[in-house]
Write a structure and sequence with these properties.
Helix content: 40-55%
CATH architecture of the largest domain: Alpha-Beta Complex
Strand content: 15-25%
CATH class of the largest domain: Alpha Beta
CATH superfamily of the largest domain: Spore Coat Polysaccharide Biosynthesis Protein SpsA, Chain A
Order of helices and strands: HEHEHEHEEHEEEEEHHEHHHHHH
Structural class: alpha/beta
CATH topology of the largest domain: Spore Coat Polysaccharide Biosynthesis Protein SpsA, Chain A
Distance between the termini: 31 Å
Radius of gyration: 20 Å
Number of helices: 13
Length: about 325
């Protein structure tokens, strides 16, 4: 490729498909789809795709009738991860932006994300999430980081406005509004079905991307109004949501923590949960999660072996780079 061709490729706009993943969120689509269409239009024209996970509330019919500019992909029931993977596979652009149906993007949110995706070592970029009232109180997904302690990866979501003004590395981009390069997504295999039915798929994706030497960024110039848990809370009891999140946190550690000394410490801490519950009580949610996760242990072991073959960065390096503490 000559210099003129290289320069033309460098300035060529990155094309992205905006994918809204929906399950029985007809009323949510009435806000999220128009916002996505306007953002796509303002950014110069990008396709918008509604990926429906076998809704029974008329979502598909409403989206097709109300928003003919958007493509609607009606899929069999598969859950968030499978539906997202199918939608990304159906896209034909070099990048994609996954959006929850309860995420309403700002009109100018797309260009800053796509600009970052020009860099060859950037896998994904996450947005700045705000509550419907514009506040940051208890928001999830902003400038994420993590720390291994007490048997799990403990996640931190920044809520201090003073620390949310600059582009910076983060551990993972929240799946409610996640922009990424499709070639790298495909190399990672997309969301791992190990984490069915929901939660930790996006953490796993970001961690594995860092493990391959790629970067995940936080971009405050791309704002999304997000009703935290607005979709899952509609169809699942709180106790089930908490159990699945705890189960998948365990599976994440078994699959992804490859440093021997760290892994031994984490497994020892997890083993103490069961002993403590027998001896003194008080930890039934954790022991129930452990029991549920053990049923998926063979599957997690296979995924761990795959990750070992692909990993180029140590666990301690992943967390340091993702927090901005290492180059």
């Amino acid at each position: 490729m000559d210099s003129a061709a290289r320069e033309k490729d460098r300035v060529r706009p990155v094309q992205a498909t905006l994918i809204i993943v929906n399950y029985n969120g007809r009323d949510l689509l009435a806000k999220s789809v128009p916002a996505a269409l306007e953002a796509a239009r303002q950014a110069g024209g990008h396709p918008v795709l509604v990926a429906d996970d076998a809704s029974s509330d008329g979502s598909v019919e409403m989206a097709r009738a109300g928003y003919p500019e958007a493509e609607v992909l009606a899929l069999p029931r598969g859950g968030f991860g499978k539906t997202s993977n199918a939608a990304v596979a159906a896209a034909r652009t070099e990048a994609a932006v996954l959006l929850n149906s309860d995420a309403v993007v700002s009109p100018d949110f797309l260009p800053p994300l796509l600009e970052h995706l020009r860099a060859p070592d950037v896998f994904a970029v996450g947005c700045k999430f705000v509550n419907p009232d514009g506040s940051l109180t208890d928001t999830l997904g902003n400038r994420t980081s993590g720390e291994w302690r007490h048997g799990l990866l403990h996640l931190h979501h920044e809520t201090d406005p003073a620390r949310l003004t600059q582009t910076c590395p983060q551990l993972y981009a929240n799946g409610a509004a996640l922009a990424f390069r499709r070639d790298k997504w495909e190399e990672l295999g997309g969301f791992d079905h190990l984490y069915r039915p929901f939660y930790w798929e996006d953490v796993d994706l970001g961690y594995r991307a860092w493990g391959r030497g790629w970067r995940v960024l936080y971009e405050p110039g791309s704002t999304v109004v997000h009703e935290q848990g607005g979709t899952i809370a509609r169809v699942h009891r709180t106790a089930r949501v908490e159990l699945m999140s705890a189960k998948n946190a365990l599976l994440f550690s078994w699959k992804n923590l490859l440093e021997a000394s760290l892994f031994r410490g984490v497994c020892a801490a997890q083993a103490r949960w069961g002993a403590d519950d027998v001896l003194i009580g008080g930890l039934p949610p954790r022991t129930r999660a452990l029991s549920a996760a053990l049923r998926q242990l063979p599957e997690a072991a296979r995924r761990r072996a795959e990750e070992q073959r692909a990993r180029v960065c140590a666990d301690s390096e992943i967390l340091a780079r993702a927090s901005g503490a290492a180059p």
